[in-house]
Aminotransferase (Profundibacterium mesophilum KAUST100406-0324), 464 residues
Amino acid sequence: MNASFQINDPRAAIEADRAHVWHHMVQHKPFESADPRIMVEGRGMKLWDITGKEHLDAVSGGVWTVNVGYGRERIADAVRDQLVRLNYFAGSAGSIPGAHFAQALIAKMPGLSRVYYANSGSEANEKAFKMVRQIAHKHHGGRKSKILYRDRDYHGTTLACLSAGGQKERNAQYGPFAPDFVEVPHCLEYRAFEQGHGDLSGADYGRAAADAIEAVILREGPDTVGALCLEPVTAGGGVITPPEGYWPRVQEICRKYDILLHIDEVVCGIGRTGTWFGYQHYGVEPDFVTMAKGVASGYAAISCCVTTEAVFEMFKDESDPLGHFRDISTFGGCTSGPAAALENMAIIEEEGLLENTSRMGTRLMGNLHALAERHAVIGDVRGKGLFCGAELVSDRDARTPADEKRVQAVVADCMAQGVIIGASNRSVPGYNNTLCFSPALIATADDIDRITDAVDGALGRVFG
């Protein structure tokens, strides 16, 4: 571990954490007898915890965020310089880094033109939801207020975002939820038989999965539906890549019924899948694109809700004193976010990280398929770029999901080996059985092989 990150009294830090910090997504009862994990330093794809143990991070900060890796001094320097110059002013005014990053971002997103800044993925999605609701009032007599979301997709942690959340265990105990959020079926081809589509595959299933969205629209009434919100690749719900033909049909349906298409790129955005945005693999033209995590690789808090000019124009009306988008995100006015995002984007371009993501993603998928040949517990392998999943099953023929505790035991075994992987957990009842891999875009062939070697050993020990 770098000496500059050593601390004089690790035990004092651990006890202070145990006594006062409320960790995210963690049951704290075990900390009465076990120490909480504290991370201290990161360099490239490696992390060191407070005990000095080294880890290879295959999940980019635990939640798919640190796209360009740890220890990027040029990003830290850009943030420091900007904070000294001007750290903050409310988003009712602009800033130099905010203007430049918006311009650079839009250059990567043909067909879109406006960037609304906030500070988290949940906030970015809330902005889009509010825009849809305001458009319904201003232009549709209040009728097109319903927002469709997909089973297994996740859009954030606020009550409105949970209202649009397709992960029942994430939502449990937090209702009642906001009205007029309506679920549509998932598009996981591996589980098509559970939807009554067991005889369909490829483009036939893709069209059927999209047609299921149209069926919901017709049931609800097209004149009541304002937007459809989808992840380009479902993330925490099982790393679900869309089937062939799905996205073109979804676009067709949205245009047919004058429904705004909102694509949530909080996980997939800024290179994760080998293109700047996940939707760009599929030829669709969204009305909203939301993003966060990889926008600045975790070096500063920033999120964006990006819209078309047509959406933006619907809020330009001086005759209505309430006609503009009356929203504010306090920390959307922080200049550190766009300053970090500019350097983050420059690094991706200069180091050819989109190309590396495609190459290493191909290697990761190949390695996972090879593991499936050796371990019958792997029922399905899917992914795009450096965002991959392996669904574990106890019976490959019946596709019976593996027990969640054993899936988590694989994660724990890898951690003991010094490799941090992820898994779907506490999200979809009965289907928290997918191992998740999202290493930084800087990953090398050796990194990929070390990750899958760890999984190979863990599967052997946990499942025999």
The domain at 10-66+353-463 is CATH 3.90.1150.10 (Aspartate Aminotransferase, domain 1). The chain has two domains: 10-66+353-463, 74-350. Residues 353-374 form the longest helix (22 residues).
